[in-house]
Specification:
By secondary structure, the chain is an all-alpha fold. The protein is built from eight helices and no strands. It is globular.
Length: 198
């Protein structure tokens, strides 16, 4: 992770002293990794952007309540993780169609039908099905396991950093990763068996 705790602390202190340009520096540094996490969690570009924006709004609103030695990256990821979790629960109660969803074959545009160096359709389909199965399995994980596995495998955070974000010990992070991998293995076992047989 592109972490610069010293400059984050300088920005936080400047923000607490009323220099709002410090928020722009924090946004520049953290917007991309936060968006990557949010997108993997909610699987929707617009919603991920909105959740990241809300995270920075909350940082600005709560700046005076934060301790001067607050680890800004942990605070941002914790806040975003909670926002993603709340959004995900809301979305389950209010389902909708994502504009980020893949389009049907019938709607494929003409330029996509031109021959290319891309893999053969059956290979591409297998890859797409495997990706969709993994994505769906990760999406079904409970919040604590999902957050931990996304932070570890995609954001490449250490156990210590994940522990600071999720509020558990390094040993707890290790246990959550183990449980998440076990659940994914169990969920994907049927899919893998079908793929091998076909």
């Amino acid at each position: 992770m592109n972490s610069e705790p010293a400059s984050d602390l300088v920005c936080l202190q400047a923000l607490q002293q009323g220099r709002d340009t410090a928020l722009n520096q924090l946004i520049t540094r953290w917007q991309r990794p936060l968006f990557a996490f949010a997108w993997r969690y909610v699987q929707n570009t617009t919603d991920a952007h909105d959740l990241v924006a809300e995270t920075f709004v909350r940082l600005h609103q709560q700046r005076s309540r934060l301790r001067p030695d607050t680890k800004v990256s942990a605070w941002l990821f914790t806040t975003l993780s909670n926002l993603c979790h709340n959004y995900y629960r809301w979305r389950r109660r209010h389902p909708s169609v994502s504009l980020d969803a893949p389009i049907d074959d019938a709607e494929t545009s003409a330029h996509e039908a031109v021959p290319s160096d891309a893999p053969l359709p059956n290979v591409a389909l297998e890859h797409d099905e495997a990706f969709a199965a993994v994505r769906a399995a990760v999406e079904r994980l409970p919040h604590d396991l999902k957050t931990t596995i996304l932070l570890h495998h995609f954001e490449r955070l250490s156990y210590r950093e994940i522990g600071a974000i999720t509020g558990c010990s390094e040993r707890g992070v290790e246990t959550r990763l183990y449980r998440a991998r076990q659940r994914l293995r169990e969920e994907l076992a049927g899919f893998m068996h079908e793929t091998v047989e076909s």
